[in-house]
Amino acid sequence: MTLRKILPLLLLPLMTSGCLSTAASIVKAPFAVAGQTVDWATTSQDEADRNFGRKMRKKEAKEGRERREYQKRCRKYPQECRGYDGYQAATDN
């Protein structure tokens, strides 16, 4: 066999490797998209904990503001104070 006949056969795997890689990428693409969609649609435990902590800090800040306002009113009008019955972050759902 001459070099002219052997050379194309030797180069064939190199020329088709790009096609195989592209074909593999095309086959994998729908699964990658589906996986990313699931990641976006669900909340991880870490993210849920972070969101809960943020929510509780806001509630506790609100309770602190209301309690300070209540104490201020009690100092001004002590006869009207019977105990704090305002917003409580721990009992709020």
Succession of helices and strands: HH
- The level of helicity is over 70%
Distance between the termini: 84 Å
Uncertain runs with pLDDT below 50, 5 residues or more?
none
Described by the principal axes of the CA atoms, the overall outline is: rod-shaped
Provide a count of the helices.
2
What would you call the quaternary organization? single chain
Sheet-strand content, in percent, reads under 5%
- What would the average pLDDT be, to the nearest integer? 78
Spatial extent as radius of gyration: 34 Å
Summarize the structure in words.
There is one protein chain. The protein has 93 residues and is mostly helical. Helix content is 76%, strand content 0%. The protein has 2 helices and no strands. The radius of gyration is 34 Å and the shape is rod-shaped. The termini are far apart. The relative contact order is 0.06. The mean pLDDT is 78.
Features:
93 residues, rod-shaped
Question: What's this entry about, in short?
Answer:
The protein is an all-alpha fold. Helix content is 76%, strand content 0%.
Secondary structure topology:
Elements: H1 3-41, H2 45-76
